[in-house]
Amino acid sequence: MKKRSKLGDLKMADGKLTGDDETKDELLNSFFKLKKLKITKSAGPDGFHPRVLSEISLSIKLPLSIIFTQLYDEGRLPSDWKNARITPIHKKESKAIPANYRPVSLTSVIGKMMESVIRDSLVKHMIASKLFCDQQHGFVTGRSYMTQLLVILKLWTKLIARQWCRHRCDLLGFQKSF
User: Fold this and answer.
1) Are residue 58 and residue 93 in the same domain, yes or no?
2) Residue 176 clears pLDDT 60, i.e. is over it
3) Which of 32, 77, 80, 89 has minimal Cβ neighbours within 10 Å of its Cβ?
4) What single-letter DSSP state applies at residue 48?
5) Would 87 be classed as within a structural domain?
6) What is the DSSP letter of 121?
7) How remote is the C-alpha of 110 from its chain's centroid?
């Protein structure tokens, strides 16, 4: 007996609609990032563990879609998604020195999924609308702080080669930032 889907056609990346259940499953899985969850990460304050969410992804994708849409339309978030558990993570050297720890916030996995979906949609819109300038490196796929540093290094090298930079340059150390 064939199971009928209550979900209508979905739009693929090329703009075409699909009614194929397997294709729709793939679209929804990629949309909600359920299959990409890092299952070794900890659960947030709401108690939902990434491994459990990943294992039941087929059962929860439609309810999550409805929940995300409703919350987005209403402009609100559940209070559990706004809470975080702060955990100290040891960085280096002596564990007895508080400065050798960095704080990590454990937040809701489902809340992070919704945040990621919204972020991806915004970035996609901004790229399609050409709202990012060429100098933008954050939030752009294929670019990062490292590509930004390479661009700056290339500029400085060019300036030094042309002897436009006759003064000593003081560089800041960013080791503690990362």
Assistant:
1) yes
2) no
3) 89
4) -
5) yes
6) H
7) 12
Residues 161 and 75 in one domain: no
Kindly state whether residues 141 and 97 are assigned to the same domain.
no
Are 64 and 22 in the same domain?
A: yes
**H-only helix segments in the chain:** 21-32, 50-55, 57-74, 79-82, 109-128, 145-161
- pLDDT score, position 14: 66
Rg (CA), the chain: 23
Indicate the number of domains in the chain. Answer: 2
Amino acid sitting at position 51: R
CA distance 172 to 149: 12
Find where tokens 């796929």 sit: 141
Whether residue 23 is contained in a domain is answered as yes
Q: How far apart are the first and last CA of the chain?
A: 55
Question: What is the CB-side half-sphere exposure of residue 143 using CA atoms within 13 A?
Answer: 13
**pTM for the full model?**
0.63
pLDDT tens-digit readout, 83-111: 888 889 998 889 888 888 999 889 999 99
DSSP, collapsed to helix, strand or coil, labels residue 137 as coil
The CA-atom distances, in angstroms, between 112 and each of 82, 98, 127, 139, 148 are: 10, 28, 22, 16, 26
